[in-house]
Design a protein that fits this description.
The complex is a heterodimer of chains A (462) and B (222). With 462 residues, chain A is mainly beta. Chain A has helices at residues 2-37, 55-62, 72-85, 259-262, and strands at residues 40-48, 69-70, 88-97, 103-112, 115-124, 128-138, 147-155, 158-170, 175-192, 195-213, 218-231, 235-237, 251-252, 266-280, 286-287, 290-291, 293-306, 312-325, 328-339, 373-386, 394-406, 418-429, 433-442, 453-458. The chains are: A mainly beta (462), B alpha+beta (222). The interface between A and B is large, with 77 and 51 residues. Strand 5 of chain A pairs antiparallel with strand 9 of chain B.
Chain lengths: 462, 222
Amino acid sequence: MHGERWDEMIHDAGRLARFLVAVIFGLAVASAAIAEERPLLLEGLEITGNSRTPERVVWLYLGLNPGDEVTAGSIVAAVEGLRREGPFASVDSWSSPGSEKGRILLHLDVAEKGFQFRFGVGFQDLSGWYIIPAELRYDNRLGRGEHLRLQVRLGYRTGGGWIVYEEPRAGDGRTWWGARIGGEGVSRAYLWNGVEYNHTVGRGGLEAHVGRRLTGHLSIEMGGAFESIDVDSTAEAAEDDKFRGVEWGDELPFDDLPPGVAAAVGEESRGTARFDIVWDSRSEGRLAGTPVGGLWGRLRMEGVFPDESDPYARVTGDLRGYRALFGAAFAARLRGGYAGWDAPFYDRHYVGGLYTVRGYAEQSLTRPAGDTRFWSASVEMRAPLAGGREEPRVTGIVFIEAAQSWTDDEAPTWNDVAAAAGYGIRVRLPWVQWLGLDAGIPITDSPESEAFHLNGTIGMTF
Amino acid sequence: MRRPPLRSLLSILILLAAETAAAGDDVRVFSVTPAARGGELVCHVETGGLPTEKAVRSMGGGLPSAVDVVIELVDEEEKVKVRRRITFRVAYDLWEEIFRVEREEVRRSMGDVNEVRAHLADLRDLPVAPLASLAGAGECRIRVGLVSHAIAPAEKSRFGDWIAGEGAGTGADAEGREVTFGLGNLIRFVFGGSGEGGPPAGVGESAWFRPAELASGGGPDA
């Protein structure tokens, strides 16, 4: 009897001890969790060095307000955003205790941007690679965080200059607007009778736009332009073709131009109006330089009103999705568009090349006069090859994609779809970010009988 | 009085600017000592000025600070054979009133800032490279730089969008992307390495040594 009571007591003591350990452990975990997650309150901002920029503009670029609850991560992200997109040449930051425990003051020591001379490089789908031998910038002169730049652009198929003024965060910080004036000439490439030709289209005028972020994911933008367009009356051979007796630089006279191109020759003035709706729910988390989840989509609707010909509409849709799976990042894109029948060749749609279907030369899959409808689809897998997983030094890519274009009076068939697969590499450089090379292998017939086509690129293609 | 040539004037100005910056930060590397530990080349680093006054003020409010220790193994031709970055994250818990120093998910608690100073002043067994990978190496030395962050960088930093076809306000439908850079960026890239994390506030080097001798029990040259 006495022994049974002793056993019961030991058993009960053991249960009590286990219960107490569980409670204490649970409290400790909860306490640590609470301590780590407890946010701080941002009491205010102390800025030094801002001789032109008022504190109001700094708050807009930080994306914070006095009284906001913040964590270390949100403060650092806000300061990095200010450093990257804000009006300052440099930003040093630290914090100090506020008026009571749990409150902080954020200190910023900044240097205003002065006059900058910059140069650069770029690539556009319709005009290829170009250099920027000179860009003069005088940002934030008015203390509004505005950008002002004069840019000269020179490339194998493009040349021109623009004066651009932009306010990325106007009003309450959710509105942006900008304007630019200038002009450029672009040599549009097309295949005609088996030979590649360049046809110069000059464009100049004034463009303005205004946009607003409506919610965390949804934004809209409206724009308009008055411009003058001048299409050359001749084209120029861009390659030698001994079989056809054509040498590089040979002129293609007006009478021999493709019909749809010849119809657009001459000068024309016009006005345009544009409306965009953009949805952006991409995550901030990254894998191989790619969002680990979310969508980005844009619907663009344009009206074009030429002086001396009939108006027409253009509509394009672009939808992208991202997902991290099995240690790699998957990205998919679907695009489509429509242009009115009266659209000239330089406003119509072309497929082939880096942003539609790699494996084919730029715009080589569409007739020279362009098409009024198109779609393209692409799926990429991106994996880190060297360096960290989020923003690796080297990223490998494999892709498969397809595209098709046609005009209103045609019935598209699956036989006309161009498809390609391939692989590529992206290297992250300190001030260029991503620089890459893709090799596309055509799966369907190629108009240039290439076994593969190489594309250089800045950044990811989507 | 003869006016000094322009190049000398520029050198003096650059030195004065560097000294001014160094005085403000006051972060120093006093010594770097290589050692062998379990088949790995490691180094012991003695420092001064950590954590900085800005970091202490930030921690006082509750935000963590960080110190990046950038370790380079260079050969006789001053070529970098190995580069590593080790981050020490230091935070003050306002409610428990203790400091926590974290390095690669190993966390230590400390009672006051003097303990933190003592810990960061004597950093031991910082990994450099496996000794097996340096079997045929000649004379080397270890260079250490310290980068102090008053507010610890975010673990997942937000990078700019480098994805085509998204520029707001371009009005153009053509896909494309461009990058521009100032002359300073180009000079830093060509002459100053990656530039990530900013220039080190304090730099120190070990004496020359042979990794093979270290593995067999020898030490760096005097």
